Amino acid sequence: MPPFVTICAPTAGRIICTDACVDEGAAWLADHDPRFAMALAQCGPLPLRRKPDGFGQLLSAIVSQQVSVASANAIWKRLSEAQLTTQSQIMAATEEDLRAAGLSRQKIKYSRALAQEDIGFEALRDLPTQEVIQVLTKVTGVGVWTAEIYAMFSLGRADVFAPGDLALQEAAKALFDLPERPKERELGQLAEAWSPWRSVAARILWAYYHVAKDREGIR
Questions:
Q1: Terminal C-alpha separation, the chain
Q2: 43, 55, 171, 201, 209 from 214: Cα distances, Å
Q3: Could you tell me how far CA 185 lies from the centroid of its own chain?
Q4: What is the pTM for the complete model shown?
């Protein structure tokens, strides 16, 4: 088996590009904490989950906010069929068009705010993760969770976490036998020990959540 190769960007840090990158992170985490090894034994191989970057992926993240995975998939399918997934298409669409595709009034507002912001998505690829989050959260409707998910999956950042994610909180409670579900700050502090592979730790926890709760963790 060839050795793992970790790809790094000068300012962005480690980038997860292949399954081998995920395997490297998982091996590191399992070596540092036997509870991750236990979770991996139950969950099996972790998914790469890399997605393209750009407007469509951030719009997809907005669609996924506060709805189930099944609902988000259904809405995105309708948006795609209606050709309402690009910046220009959102700008040109009427409120009736967007509502017919399944967007709530609030998400229509967020989608338009994203389209009007005209973010330089290619430039985000080279920014440090914290700066990426700062840029994205300037958009109305794009919170820290959404920005973290974008950095994790669309930009491939290896060391970003989303401590406000309820599934991650529930999985951490179960895996680490905590007396109650950790709050965002507590989970963020716990996750510091998983650097430089916090994105892979998140993958493990989402997979463990799926096994433990028999539910989808994230779209």
A1: 31
A2: 12, 32, 12, 19, 7
A3: 18
A4: 0.87
Give residue 17's domain range: 7-48+159-213
Per run of 10 residues, the mean pLDDT along the chain (length 219 residues) is 47 90 97 97 92 95 88 96 97 96 96 95 95 96 93 96 96 96 98 98 96 65
User: Of 128, 132, 216, whose CA–CA distance to 171 is shortest?
Assistant: 216
Exposure b/e, 27-54, CB count within 10 A at least 16 = b? bbbbeebebbeebbeebeebebbbbebb
Boundary-marking domain end, from 136, 154, 172: 154
Residue 39 and residue 153: Cα distance in Å, rounded?
21
Amino acid 1: pLDDT: 30
| Shared-domain flag, residues 193 and 121 | no
